[in-house]
Structure formats: C-alpha cells, structure tokens
Protein 1
Amino acid sequence: MDVRLLGTGDAFGSGGRFNTCFHVGAAAGAFLIDCGASSMVAIRKFGIVPNEVRTIFISHLHGDHFGGLPFFLLDARLISRRAAPLTIAGPPGIRERLAAAMENAFPGSNSAPPRFELEVQELQPGIPQNVNGVEVTPHLVKHPSGAPPLALRFRVDGRVIAYSGDTEWVDELKQAACEADLFIAEAYLWDKQVKFHLDYATLVQHLPEIRAKRVVLTHMSADMLGHAVEARCECAHDGMLIILD
C-alpha cells in the first residue's frame, strides 16, 4: 500500500504548497483523504488518474480540505468522462455543503445528474463504518467549520492510517492514532498554542501515549516551516511517497 501526499500546505499556501489532499493506493481501491481547493492541480502534477479514485474521505468542511470537490466532480463529468461509481464520505452536513459549493463554483451544475453513480455518505463520530472496503472510524475533534470536524482512522490492507485533520489538542486524537502504522498530523505552529490548531510542541508531548509507528507532519504554517529542520518527526512535502509494507 502506498500513500502519496499530494498537498501538504495550510489554507494560505505557505511554502508554495498545495491544499491538503492525500492519495492512498490500496487493494480495496484507491481513495483520497481530503480534497482541498487546489487538489486537481496536484492530482495532475503528480500523475494521479482521477477515474481510479473510488472514494473521497473528507475530514471537515473548510475550503482547503473539501473545496476541490466541485472541480473533481466537474472533471469527472466533462473531462475524464467517468463511468465508475464514486463515493464521497464526510461529516454530517456534507450533502448540503457540497451542493452549495457546486452551485457557488459552477452555477447550474447541480441540475444535471452525473453519468456515473455518485453517493454521498455522512460519517457519524465514534462509529466505525466500512466504505468500499475501507474501515473508517471518525473521531470528533475541535475546529469550527460549520459541521462536526473529524480526525479519521483508516484500517485497510492490514494497516492503520490515522489523520488528525485540523484541531487543537483533544484526547480523541489518542484514540484515532493509537499504534497507527502511519499518523499524518497537523503541526500548524512550532510551539505557540492557538485555538483550533495543533502545534508541534504539544503534539510531541503526546506522541509517547499515541505510540504511532511513523509520524509525518503536515498543514504547516510559515512559522512551522521555519523550524522544520529542528523537528524530530518527518515533515511532509508535496508529492511525498510513503510505502507501507
């Protein structure tokens, strides 16, 4: 199984990075974790085939994490000519917010149904769910976005991938990432604690409790990028490939 970090930036493009989007190649089928506004650019840049993506999981409903969905769906209809089914799974409220995003980005785009089967599922915090062969457990975190924000724990191909989403420290992160083979964690700031975002210093304090086998930092601001060489964890970059044997 391989994980390609297509976009590892924050909302503001710090370091010239794309918005959050991770591609997982698994036996159960390829899936994306988040699809920020710039994701179609990253998908093209790194040679991902959109029609091979079976599922898109969304952590929370901010533009740098789900704002690429209108472009992905319009590409599927008009450019890639998708025929295979697609599932989008995200927080409660994603159906309405996705419809609104489609209409705002491309007025009238909701009026014509796609030629492929599109299913939008709402993930309930704390309840494991099998979505197209991927077991996903959402954990409620703290990051106001108009809908419940989620950290996501995936079990697929005998491996566990955890993703913090955006959040200040909450104990639910220990459950989401406990003994994960890969924990992709926000490190927005180096050591300054702010509401609704995770800083590196706080994260490092809790890593012994989490016991993840590999930790990769993402969603880094200019402040965190300036300290990246000092970090004891791996720092993600756009296009980074992680192989989980």
Protein 2
Amino acid sequence: MLSCLCPTYNRCGGPYQYLLEEAVESFLRQYCSDTLLRELVILNDTPGQEVVCDAPRVRVVNLPYRLETLGDKRNLLVELARFEWLAPWDDDDISLPNRVQQACQQMHVQQPDYWKPPQDWYLERGRKPQWKHNVGYRHHSSVFTRAAWRAVGGYARTSGNEDALMDIALMKLQHNIRTYPQGIPPSEWPYLYRWGVSPSHVSGNNDGKYEQRGEEPVAKGCFVLRPYWRQDYTELCRKEL
C-alpha cells in the first residue's frame, strides 16, 4: 500500500505545466498489479490556481494559500496520504515504470523502514541520460514508512534541503534501513533525476529562493492536467546502455 507524494507550485498555465503532467504520467505507467493499493497525491498551494486531474488513483489537493516552507508541504502530504508506505514524487522528475513495483517488493520482502535504490539516472537539459553521476542523497527516489517519519519528527521546516535532512535523520534511526544491492545494473534503476528543466527545481528552488518563487506572477484559473510523456524515457535510458 503506497502513497506517492507530489508537491507542486505554480506549474500550470505556462511553459512548465508539462513537467507536472509528465510526473503524473510516470505514475500511470507503473507496471504493477491492480491488486496493489496505490495513489498519487498532488498538493498545490498556488493561490488562485486550481489544478484538476481525473486520472485513476490521482488525487489533487488545492490550497488557497502558500505554505511557509517546502518541508511544511511535504509534511502535509504525509498527513493527507491514505497508506503507510510513502514515496516522494517530485513534480519535475521521471519515475520509470518499474519504480513502484520494485519499491513495494523490497518493502514487502525486507520490511525496512527506509529504502532507496543505489543510484538514479541523471538528465540535464540538452544532454543524454547519464548513469555515472552522483545525484546526492536520493531521498527523492526512496520509500519510507509513516512510523519512521514520525520517529524523526517529520521533515524540517526549511526549503531546498529538507529532503537531505530527512535522509540524514532516517539513516540515523535504529530502524531497519535498506539500500538496493550495489550490483543491480543501471537497467533496473527506477528514477530519472532531471536538472535545469525549469527556472526552479522541486517547486521551491534548491538555492534558498523559496520566498522569491512565491513572488512570481501566477496564471490564475482552473487547469486540467493531461498526463503524457514528451518522449519515451525508458527507451531513452535503454539506449545509453
């Protein structure tokens, strides 16, 4: 039972709406059994901007005000989630079709409180996918339990490094921590981490500009998401192997 948690801000009504639509499409392309209970929860806190999506198992929550930090937004997403296993689902990255199935298998068999793959694909604007690239703590491609989230006191009330701080806190727990065996080939890596695809990363900006992001113009109205991929990212990664 997995809840995928997607924070987003001011993506719609402009040239970057496709990022959020691709994130939704990534969820819809997951090749896992229909018996697996799963959901994608999108939290949009853009005042005056309503996001709508009628895709199956996708739930959008629109707030009329902006949350103070990205950490607050991630914590609220956990509270909104229906299930006990929690997966960050950033609104500008691509989760490849094996991500959910792979994660749930690891959570079911090993029963960890925190699990993440050994490495992610990396895609920078205008370049080919790379599989020999350090993408940091990889919390963005992880799965953790609600109990572990409670044990560390949730995400820190900060923006830009709240995921790194959460990773550090979870790794310090005396809980059952697992990473995927290092021998797993890149063909099984479940995540495509993108950089430079928009002026701001992960709906807040990793350069500490969360407040400035909130001062940017907002296209107001109701926006319907039409999930799609601009290209076949699975095939794009496969070609690099």
Protein 3
Amino acid sequence: MNKNLVQVSIATLIIFSIFLIVQTIHISNTAATTNTVSFSGEGKISAKPDIAVISASILTQATDSKTAQDENSRKSKNVSDFLKKQGIEEKDIKTSGYNISPQYKYPPYGGQPAISGYQVMESYEIKLRDLAKVSVVLDGLVSAGANQVNNLGLQIENPDELMAQARQLAIDNARKKAEALEDQIDIKLGRVVNFSENAGGYPMPMYAYGMKGEGMGGGGGPDVSLGQNDVVVNITITYQIR
C-alpha cells in the first residue's frame, strides 16, 4: 500500500508540475501579446513608367464564319507586320483571346431568331518598351485593322527594387513614431513581436480608343502623358512593452 501511495503521489506531482509549466508559458505568451503597442508606417517611391501594355482587338463581321475568319486573319497579319516594323519583338506580342460567335436577327413580333452572320474577335496584349512610340503605335494599330484599342497601361516592369526602397522608408517611418512615443510617455519598447505589410501602387493610366479610331488626343495619334507611377508600401510593427 505504501508503495502504491508513493507512486500515486509522484504521478500527481508530475501532472501538477506540467500544469504549472503550461500555465507559466501561457501567462508569458499572454503578457507578450497584451503588453504591446503598434506603429504604422508608409513609404512611397515615385518613378517614371518604363513599359506600356496595350490591349487591342480585331473585330470582323461577315455573313458566314469562313469569310469572317479569313478577313480577320488578313487584318491580324497587317497588325502583326505593323508592330514588327515598329521594332516590337514577337515575345511582346501575345494573342490573349480568340472568339467566333453567331449574330442573330430577331423578328419584330416574336418568334425564333435567325442567324444573320458571324463575328470573329481576336485580342492582343502588346508590350511596348520604347515609350516614345506610344502615340505612333496606338494610331497605327487602328490603321492596320485593330478597330478596338481598349486600354493603355503605363507600368514599371520590374518594381521589386522600388518596392524594397518603399518598404525601408515605411519601416523608418514607423520606427520614428516608436522612438517619439518612448520619449513622450516614458516607456521602453522591447522586441518586435509582429510585423505586417500591405503593398500597393503601380497605377496604370487607362486610355480608351474608339471603334472609328477616335482617340482622346485628336488626329495624328493621341497625345499620351507618361507622368509617374507610385510604389506604395504600408507596414505595421508591433513592439512588446518592457
């Protein structure tokens, strides 16, 4: 009996010890997360765009699908030839969509609609690395047969370095706020217990081009202003209060 009692006591002591350890860790973790203060920071880097991305489409209608496809293919070759003459490499000319759809004629007083023809649409995404040619390319696309130039995005192709600079500015901004608060209310900040980041920016000015090639810049090609793009990083740093 005494031996069993000793074993039970030891087992109870071990369980109690484990319980105390778990509680201590829990209290420590709770203190680390509740006795904290957070600071936000923003960093912004402005840079000129170095690439233009143009979305354009060739829309062709005919009474039968074969004629519509053939005519669309002819226009497509004209567009491709024009782009290559502008020094745009094949890798920067991508077919982003191809669609053939019937067109219907509806009776004025109800009844079943009848197919009146077919429509073929081929869409392109074009990367233009020589921004001095933006106006010429936009205007020439329409002349070559692209009757829809949907938008123009002025972008920064490789923003990673700018992102890193913006992030550092955001961190410096948050740290300055933390140092100021330490002096203002006489507290001591400890280790960083949390960090979060929200990156944004790269606004892309959009340029619409009409079915008849009527751009916002008037005749002879649109007047496109390149401006600057902003790379913005917002961060939050959470410190433990000592």
